[in-house]
Design goal:
By secondary structure, this protein is an all-alpha fold. It is built from 9 helices and no strands.
Length: 269
């Protein structure tokens, strides 16, 4: 009995001691140095993350701009090729016409005939009052759009085989724009049309104007080639060979130069 009471007393006292013992406090790592360093590192990484996002966005914009530029370059190349095809087709058509008899052009000039009149009585001539010259109006500067419109209109007449109308329009264009953007083309097509209508001197004059006034033009080599062909047709082989040789040196690697080389080989040079 005494042993039982002793055991119960020991159990009660250990329970009281366990209840009276305090639990250790919960440790908050954020209050320590390591926790503070970790929090600071996270906050310092935030601007870098934002910068990376911005860099990625800029890369996407650059890729989009590159795609737009490539598409625009593709469209420009297609337009250039289309224009070149039109010019090539016109050259072939005009060359086919040049090989024919040619089309006559109205070159009659009006003349006034004077018949002598016998005067019976000598009279003193009355002084003629000359009209005062009218002030010359200065031409307004034309825009690039107006120049292109005028050239397109003349070139349409060439394509439609309206040669008389094309000659008038091209000559008027060159009077309005002697050093314009399309002046070299105007001289070239005017020479081609004159060749078709069998006005050889006018054709020579306009072809020569292309490579003398616009030596860096894309039409310069072809104009010189056409002039050399005219000399060859007129049996002036010396001038033809001279121009063919000049084309191969001055406009090397061009279409005109390759054609000139073949023609020199045919001549035997």
């Amino acid at each position: 009995m005494n042993k039982l009471c002793l055991i119960m007393a020991i159990c009660i006292s250990s329970t009281v001691y366990a209840e009276s013992r305090k639990l250790p406090p919960i440790i908050n790592n954020s209050t320590y140095a390591n926790g503070a360093a970790y929090s600071g590192q996270a906050s310092s990484n935030q601007p870098m993350l934002e910068m990376l996002v911005r860099v990625e966005a800029l890369q996407v914009e650059v890729q989009q701009l590159r795609g737009t530029i490539e598409q625009q370059n593709h469209d420009i190349n297609n337009l250039k090729q289309r224009q070149q095809n039109i010019y090539t087709d016109m050259n072939m058509r005009l060359q086919q016409l040049e090989t024919g008899a040619g089309i006559s052009i109205d070159s009659s000039k009006s003349a006034v005939l004077y018949t002598p009149v016998k005067r019976q009585n000598t009279t003193i001539p009355t002084p003629v009052q000359r009209a005062k010259p009218k002030p010359v109006k200065k031409a307004k500067p034309r825009s690039k759009a107006e120049e292109k419109s005028a050239f397109d209109k003349a070139f349409t007449s060439v394509k439609d085989s309206h040669y008389q109308q094309a000659i008038k329009q091209l000559e008027q264009f060159l009077r309005d724009y002697p050093n314009g953007t399309y002046s070299d083309n105007a001289y070239f097509w005017l020479g081609s049309v004159y060749k078709v209508v069998n006005d050889i001197p006018a054709a020579q004059k306009n072809f020569e104007a292309v490579y003398t006034q616009f030596p860096k033009s894309e039409k310069a080599g072809m104009a010189m080639l056409k002039l050399a062909d005219i000399y060859r047709e007129e049996n002036d082989s010396a001038k033809a060979v001279q121009l063919y040789t000049q084309i191969t040196s001055q406009y090397a690697d061009s279409t005109a130069a390759h054609i000139a080389e073949k023609k020199l080989q045919n001549i035997g040079q």
